[in-house]
Design the sequence.
């Protein structure tokens, strides 16, 4: 990796935690300069704007969480076991998330709702990708006879993500994993309800 690439990556990694914790509006260029130890010129020499940094930081944060989830589910063959592993991953990491500030999809979705169309479209793309991965997992499970053929994979994916994200929000708000535990029980019941025969 070239020096310029390393510097860009360093800025993105530092900014990811800032944006995920403080939001786009709450994170200033001075915050990024302070976190990186670079000059403003050093930061702007790598990114054209704060928004460009935020977009890269969001992608980095989502990729980091996704990578950890994939590591957790790697080698799990059965579709429903894979989904259960995702629930347990979040249960274990709820108060110690892979990126400081919690779930980057949730935080950025709320932060960018109507104020930042570019960031909002990235969140939608990340959610669409997550839904598609769940649908793919369930459809493969149907092919192997693990999942009820009548299960609506897309509707399940939406309910799964909504329930998971709701549990994350409550646990983070109250700083109490028991709020996520209640949602995790619901998720595990939903998963079990898909089991074929």
Sequence:
């Amino acid at each position: 990796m070239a020096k310029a690439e390393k510097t860009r990556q360093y800025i993105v990694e530092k900014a990811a935690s800032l944006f995920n914790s403080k939001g786009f509006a709450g994170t200033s260029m001075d915050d990024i300069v302070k976190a990186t130890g670079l000059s403003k010129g050093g930061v702007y020499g790598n990114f054209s704007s704060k928004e460009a940094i935020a977009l890269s930081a969001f992608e980095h944060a989502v990729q980091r969480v996704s990578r950890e989830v994939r590591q957790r589910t790697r080698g799990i063959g059965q579709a429903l076991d894979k989904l259960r592993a995702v629930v347990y991953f979040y249960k274990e990491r709820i108060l110690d998330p892979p990126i400081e500030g919690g779930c980057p999809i949730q935080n950025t979705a709320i932060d960018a709702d109507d104020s930042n169309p570019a960031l909002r479209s990235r969140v939608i793309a990340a959610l669409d990708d997550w839904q598609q991965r769940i649908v793919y997992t369930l459809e493969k499970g149907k092919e192997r006879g693990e999942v009820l053929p009548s299960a609506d994979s897309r509707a399940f994916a939406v309910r799964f993500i909504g329930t998971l994200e709701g549990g994350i929000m409550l646990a983070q708000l109250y700083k109490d994993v028991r709020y996520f535990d209640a949602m995790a029980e619901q998720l595990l019941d939903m998963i079990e309800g898909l089991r074929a025969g």
User: Anything to note?
Assistant: The domain at 59-192 is CATH 1.10.357.10 (Tetracycline Repressor; domain 2). The mean pLDDT is 95. The longest helix spans residues 117-143.
